[in-house]
Design a protein that fits this description.
Length: 471
């Protein structure tokens, strides 16, 4: 006896393709285009699996999902949608969908999901959990972002530890906030801590708290981030910058669910969900002993990778319009963006990813004279492209690096640090020579913060005054 599939899809071309594919698999497929017809079919017959679009001829395919559950207890529901936003993915998850497929989807993946749903149908419980919509600014309908949305929805109903990876500026903290605000811990606190922003000797106190008198300056008891996040989510940003001793204490806390304040004797139970993030490749850090392998496995239970903006350029238009709306809320003039301006923005490299795009859009909103931002203004405000002369200098740098690699033959796992040691001093000296010792201009040339420049000059014992031309 063949399994019966109910397909609710108002795009007749898509319905035909899905129907033929499932019939080739041996399934008995009944299709309809309307919510009312769906309810009629469910009332009069039993189906093993239902596939439903969200936007249908007479309404929303997820509206009335409770009545679907009552009419067909335990029937897996697979959701299809062209409205490819995080909001849609979360609604699918909140409806207890077996799987969610943003359009366009891979037909083989869909038929495989149907096979899995049919196999699990008799074992599924009729459980429903109320959900809330999302206004989180995770924007994008690209295939890469759909993968992110699907992974987020899979961790909303559990407390599995998540490791978010991606370049700086891709929005890793937004993923952590989405997991918290849309998950079962939404009523608890969300506490974020940036490992790179805290001095190493204060990090353990920041995380675990301290007792009065634990160290010089500890005039009173302090509650750490773990205790502050009790019952909620603790977001550990830039986890790759965590010093070794703090890594050990963090591992103990994750294993036992208990912490001890610095200078304290009592162990304190904490109930927190951990979401960690890094823009660094932890594999070489593990290889040379700078990051604990056992801590990595404890954190990397569910990996979510955020793609760089250059790999999802089709999202730049939607992001730009979103940031223009934010700029208007902050008191900047109302602007629209032309298609040629979006094309110009999409042609940029965006090394700073979404964070850089946001800053550029705010600058455009401030500088634009006309209501519609055009390509000329975008071109004027974006950082200039590298000239052919600069390109040849870049090639010289590449040749120098290649020559150093051949001559020095650094050991595997040490290339980054040895290259940094070899090229860092001449790089800063070159920047100071080009700017005649002007630290503000040197920082701008290097693309770093002035405070970072001053810190590095101190570490390298480079004196800017030695580069000032006299006479």
């Amino acid at each position: 006896m063949s399994h019966k599939i109910l397909l609710v899809e108002d795009d007749r071309a898509i319905a035909t393709v899905i129907t033929e594919a499932l019939r080739d698999e041996g399934y008995d497929v009944t299709s309809c285009t309307r919510v009312a017809k769906r309810d009629e079919l469910l009332a009069s017959g039993r189906y093993d699996v239902m596939l439903t679009d969200i936007m249908l001829e007479d309404g929303d395919g997820l509206d009335g999902i409770e009545s679907v559950r009552e009419a067909a207890p335990g029937m897996p529901v697979i959701v299809l949608s062209a409205q490819n936003t995080l909001d849609t993915a979360v609604r699918a998850s909140d409806s207890d969908a077996f799987e969610y497929f943003p359009k366009p989807f891979d037909l083989d993946d869909l038929t495989q999901a149907v096979r899995q749903a049919v196999a699990r149908a008799p074992k599924r419980d009729d459980e429903e959990e109320a959900g809330q919509g999302s206004e989180l600014p995770l924007i994008g309908r690209s295939r890469a972002m759909q993968d992110v949305y699907r992974m987020i929805t899979r961790v909303l109903r559990n407390d599995l530890t998540v490791l978010v990876t991606g370049e700086s500026g891709t929005g890793k903290e937004l993923v952590a906030e989405a997991i918290h605000q849309l998950g079962s811990r939404r009523t608890g606190p969300f506490v974020a801590v940036n490992m790179a922003a805290i001095p190493h000797d204060l990090l353990e106190s920041e995380l675990f708290g301290h007792e009065r008198g634990a160290f010089t300056g500890a005039h009173s008891q302090a509650i750490g981030k773990f205790e502050q996040a009790n019952g909620g989510t603790l977001f550990l940003d830039e986890i790759g910058d965590m010093p070794a001793e703090a890594q050990t204490r963090l591992l103990r806390a994750l294993q036992s669910g208990r912490i001890r304040r610095v200078g304290g004797r009592q162990e304190i139970g904490v109930d927190v969900r951990i979401v960690a993030a890094t823009n660094r490749d932890l594999a070489p850090m593990i290889a040379d002993g700078r990051f604990r392998e056992d801590l990595f496995y404890r954190l990397n239970v569910v990996p979510i990778h955020l793609p760089p903006l250059r790999e999802r350029r089709e999202d730049i238009g939607a992001l730009t319009r979103h940031f223009l709306g934010q700029a208007r809320e902050e008191g900047l003039p109302h602007h629209t963006v032309s298609e040629d301006a979006v094309a110009a923005l999409s042609d940029h490299d965006w090394r700073g990813n979404v964070r850089e795009l946001r800053n550029v859009v705010f600058r455009l909103a401030l500088m634009a004279r006309d209501e519609a931002i055009d390509a000329d203004l975008v071109t004027d405000l974006l950082p200039r492209r590298v000239s052919s002369e600069e390109g040849s200098q870049g090639s010289a740098v590449e040749r120098a690096m290649e020559g150093w690699l051949i001559a020095e033959r650094p050991a595997a796992g040490t290339v980054y640090h040895e290259a940094l040691s070899a090229f860092e001093r001449p790089l800063f000296e070159h920047a100071l020579r080009e700017t005649q010792g002007n630290q503000v201009k040197a920082a701008q040339l290097l693309g770093i913060n002035r405070n970072t420049l001053r810190k590095k000059l101190g570490e390298l014992d480079i004196r800017p005054e030695n580069f000032v031309r006299r006479g």
